Amino acid sequence: MSRGLYAYAITRDRQLDLAGPWLIGHRGLALVVAEVELDRFTGLELDEPTEDSPLAVLARYHDAVVRAVFQREPVLPLRFGTVLDGVDAAVRLLSARHEEASAWLDRVEGRREWGVRVRAPEREPINLDEMSGTAYLTLRRQRLNATDAVRSGAAAVHRALEQRAAESTCRDLSGDLLLEAAYLVRTEDEEDFHAEVRRLTGELGLRVEITGPWPPYSFTKVEFADA
Amino acid sequence: MPEHTAASLVDLLDRVVHRGAVVRGDVVIALAGVELIRLDLRLLLIGIGGDR
């Protein structure tokens, strides 16, 4: 059976007890790895992923390892399914990308990622039977104005949060989403960040959903190519 | 400040499978199954919440 070295993350070379995965260190940096059977990664399916599907189990474990490191040290999460060709390959990677990886770790140190989703307030459905034509048109106009207001409200939320974050990234919107973004926030700014989310969305009557804290998954857009 | 709760599976897959640093080149073993999952996830996310 074919085996490889699954790599979860790059971090600083410190003493970390991870109950399973271990660190391959090189000049102050380390790759967090574990030996895996490659068979586990064939035939994974995404259709309606459930918590007990093989993909979900592997992804949760990946996240758990990254988080265990993240609690102690800055972490550069690697994308799911990164499997290296053994310890020599791991050292080659750390050696070839030492400066770049160090710079990325400095960049995310002391910061955590938060996801923010904003939606418009829920509205009563219009009951046409109980309404004159004029009343209907008035209501329609009011609602269109309200739609503009919540849109600009969501934009204001993003501007305010962006200022309280070290970095931010917006995802494209669909459905009833007005804002779907991730923010990399310095831990000392987190209280202020969350107070601002509550204050603004409360004032504007917007529905808000927050996820996190996450390791900086959305802020390590880097490719270590041809290492 | 909100406490961390078990993240929804889609939020988790979006980050774990779809983001994070990528390693390419001789050092990695390419896994065809994982490439397929990445493509599928991209389609799933476009369906749910835009190109995330």
Task: Outline the secondary-structure elements.
The complex is a heterodimer of chains A (227) and B (52).
Chain A: E1 3-12, E2 22-26, E3 29-37, H1 54-70, E4 75-77, E5 83-84, H2 87-96, H3 98-108, E6 111-119, H4 133-163, E7 167-170, E8 177-186, H5 190-204, E9 207-214, E10 223-224
Antiparallel strand pairs in A: 1-3, 1-4, 1-5, 2-3, 6-8, 6-9, 7-8
Helix pairs in contact in A: 4-5
Chain B: H1 9-18, E1 22-23, H2 32-49
Helix pairs in contact in B: 1-2
**Structural class, judged by helices and strands of chain A?**
alpha+beta
Distance between the termini of chain A: 26 Å
Q: What is the radius of gyration of chain A? A: 23 Å
By DSSP, the count of extended strands of chain A is: 10
Could you write a compact summary of the structure shown?
The complex is a heterodimer of chains A (227) and B (52). Chain A is an alpha+beta fold and 227 residues long. Chain A has helices at 54-70, 87-96, 98-108, 133-163, 190-204; strands at residues 3-12, 22-26, 29-37, 75-77, 83-84, 111-119, 167-170, 177-186, 207-214, 223-224.
